[in-house]
């Protein structure tokens, strides 16, 4: 019986060794070389964020600034015949999908933070996001300091709550599960302003006439493109492509396409 068990263990050990070697090779794969050979990049994107990445219910396709930017980056990096495909991510899934190599890069309203930089590598910032305020058109609120003594609305799990208290320590913050609930609360006058990233507020303002952004950006939190740790080639080529898109006017064209005409949204701080 003992000999039989030994014979069964031998092939199992060989299998485990092979699997470990294969995983090691997979994790050490040069992502840029892979996409260069395939002329294809798989991007992790948002499909629920107006202006950045939102599913068009009529066509079933994801549309937005980040989708257009991903297409432009793909062709700039790999050539005119290169293609891009998209995998829908959320704040909770984007890093695991990247770590599991289900996607090559994340382009999904991802703020560059020291904590995240421990898990992934970031490109240079591609969108100067930061906390801002959304208010009714007739609001007396002009900037974040006006929130002292007032009630402001935010979404649970965002950095906006801490950001508000840094600049308006006497503000009262009501937190909601999502932006739909928070916006409904603003319409019901349960607070004087809704706060989160300026780009996200721009999308909410576009969908809700009678509301505008005010006060500019009171806390900088730029978005970056994330890739797996150790993929320096991929980061370098993404950064180079971003520089080229800025120089040839593609970046500014895409910004104007998606953000021009949003009440209170300043293009000056975004255009390159």
UniProtKB/TrEMBL annotation:
Family membership noted in the UniProt record: Belongs to the bacterial solute-binding protein 3 family.
InterPro entries: Bact_solute-bind_prot3, Iontro_rcpt_C, Solute-binding_3/MltF_N
Listed SUPFAM superfamilies: Periplasmic binding protein-like II
Domain Solute-binding protein family 3/N-terminal positions: 40-262
Superkingdom of origin organism: Bacteria
Protein name: Glutamine ABC superfamily ATP binding cassette transporter, binding protein
UniProt-recorded Gene Ontology molecular function terms: ligand-gated monoatomic ion channel activity
Any one Pfam family match given in the protein's UniProt record, by short name: SBP_bac_3
């Amino acid at each position: 019986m003992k000999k039989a068990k030994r014979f069964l263990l031998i092939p199992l050990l060989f299998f485990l060794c092979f699997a470990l070697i294969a995983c090691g090779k997979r994790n050490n794969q040069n992502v840029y070389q892979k996409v260069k050979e395939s002329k294809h990049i798989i991007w992790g994107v948002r499909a629920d964020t107006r202006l950045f990445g939102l599913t068009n219910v009529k066509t079933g396709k994801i549309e937005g600034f980040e989708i257009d930017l991903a297409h432009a980056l793909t062709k700039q990096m790999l050539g005119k015949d290169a293609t891009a495909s998209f995998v829908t991510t959320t704040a909770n899934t984007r890093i695991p999908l990247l770590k599991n190599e289900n996607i090559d890069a994340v382009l999904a309203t991802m703020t560059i933070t020291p904590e995240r930089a421990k898990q992934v590598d970031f490109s240079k910032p591609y969108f100067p996001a930061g906390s801002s305020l959304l208010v009714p058109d007739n609001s007396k609120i002009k900037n974040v300091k006006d929130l002292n003594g007032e009630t402001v609305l935010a979404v649970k799990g965002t950095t906006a709550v801490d950001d508000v208290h840094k600049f308006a320590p006497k503000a009262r913050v009501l937190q909601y599960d999502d932006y739909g609930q928070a916006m409904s609360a603003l319409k019901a006058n349960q607070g004087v302003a809704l706060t989160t990233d300026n780009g996200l507020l721009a999308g909410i303002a576009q969908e809700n006439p009678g509301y505008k952004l005010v006060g500019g950006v009171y806390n900088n939190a730029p978005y970056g493109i994330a890739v797996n740790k150790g993929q320096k080639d991929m980061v370098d080529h993404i950064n180079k492509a971003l520089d080229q898109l800025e120089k040839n006017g593609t970046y500014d064209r895409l910004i104007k396409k998606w953000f021009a005409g949003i009440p209170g949204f300043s293009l000056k701080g975004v255009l390159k």
